[in-house]
């Protein structure tokens, strides 16, 4: 018999469903992994009760682009991302990435998961392209261990870099793979972890890192393999590489992806701030998604996506943190706030910007669509019980609680939430991650970071 949880008397439930329902003074019944009822006065014998008095409830945020391993390369002014082009930054930072081992992968992933969970994220995609001589083929396996420990819903993007520096990439030899190695390991991971069923906690995405740093056959063969095995595809696109791709292939990156078939409803791209208005139609017609990562765009001084125009054209936009080496945070609530502010600045002059609530739906409903998850993204019966709660009675929110739909991004609620639930299980509440000794893990992680990265790396030596 499925375990039951009953959230009683929530001050407001923002569902993000098709009708944008907001329920007041209402209950939610959860049985096993899913929501089974929403309404006042629900009675369920034997259910564990969570007192929702004064609390606002939201669907869990869904992160569609990240690089967890970079949480151990944060706060590093010796490689100052805001003062570099993306391609120059990649050239410098990969010299640190090449010394990463599987202990770094494991503890940096735990660090990212903790940050995500404490800020309301319940489903996270990570683009794991850091395969070094030290890691071998184990990084995604170590990430799955971390996901199991933290109880988060995890989609792993198996990335790769296959073009050597001698042929025009930025990739050190210690981080290179062949296309064959990449495809073989993707097949192994899909067999081992990919679960396409409703309420799945683990899925695999085939995600070669970026066209500029891969051989063309890596992408071409990914298309065939991914579609034969029924998994989605992802890559970086339109973040500074377009001129390099034009020089190499005589066409823009999006056009190149279209021509080889790396486009469609089962594909989404990260960033895309180089996309042109005339390319919106191609993205919309092919139902290709875009993960908007606002924080690195601001830090890097890059063009702001015109989300309103893209949505009006029919482009699917979701929200991502991006790697901590270009963000320094895994806080998706903060990304929600930054993205809203960016849109307000960018589009107000031409008549109306994306609302704070629109941005919330981008971070929930659209994230679920991007990952191909019909069971996630909103709070309604038969959807997964992925949610977070905030304390609507906190003094700092007085005067703002009349509109819970717009509250998060507009008021700038970016701190820790009160509770996070994933697949019907409370994984975080009142400042505590369930079943995890955070201090011990943080101490172990710091020791790993110092041993593997800080001491051997020139970029860290001035601080030691």
The assigned CATH architecture of the largest domain is: Alpha-Beta Barrel
Strand content: 15-25%
Class inferred from helices and paired strands? alpha/beta
The major β-sheet equals: 9 strands, mixed
Low-confidence stretches: none
Q: Count the helices. How many? A: 16
Q: What name is given to the CATH topology of the largest domain? A: TIM Barrel
Supply the CATH class of the largest domain.
Alpha Beta
How many beta strands in the DSSP annotation? 17
Provide the residue-averaged pLDDT. 95
Helix content: 25-40%
Shape: globular
Cα end-to-end separation? 55 Å
Protein name: Amidohydrolase
GO molecular function, one term: hydrolase activity, acting on carbon-nitrogen (but not peptide) bonds
Domain Amidohydrolase-related: 56-427
Keywords: Hydrolase
Can you tell me about this structure?
The protein has helices at 86-97, 102-118, 139-150, 179-193, 216-229, 242-249, 253-260, 280-286, 294-300, 307-312, 332-347, 356-363, 365-370, 404-412, 438-454, 458-461; strands at 4-14, 22-31, 34-39, 48-51, 55-59, 61-63, 121-128, 153-158, 202-206, 232-237, 267-271, 289-292, 316-319, 387-391, 419-422, 425-429, 432-433. Strands 1, 2, 3, 4, 5, 14, 15, 16 and 17 form a nine-stranded mixed sheet that branches. An eight-stranded parallel sheet has the order 6-7-8-9-10-11-12-13. Strand 7 (121-128), helix 3 (139-150) and strand 8 (153-158) form a beta-alpha-beta unit. 36% of the residues lie in helices and 20% in strands. The model has no long low-confidence stretch (mean pLDDT 95). It has two domains: 4-59 and 379-432, Urease, subunit C, domain 1 (Roll), CATH 2.30.40.10; 61-370, TIM Barrel (Alpha-Beta Barrel). Helix 11 (332-347) crosses helix 14 and helix 12 packs across helix 14.
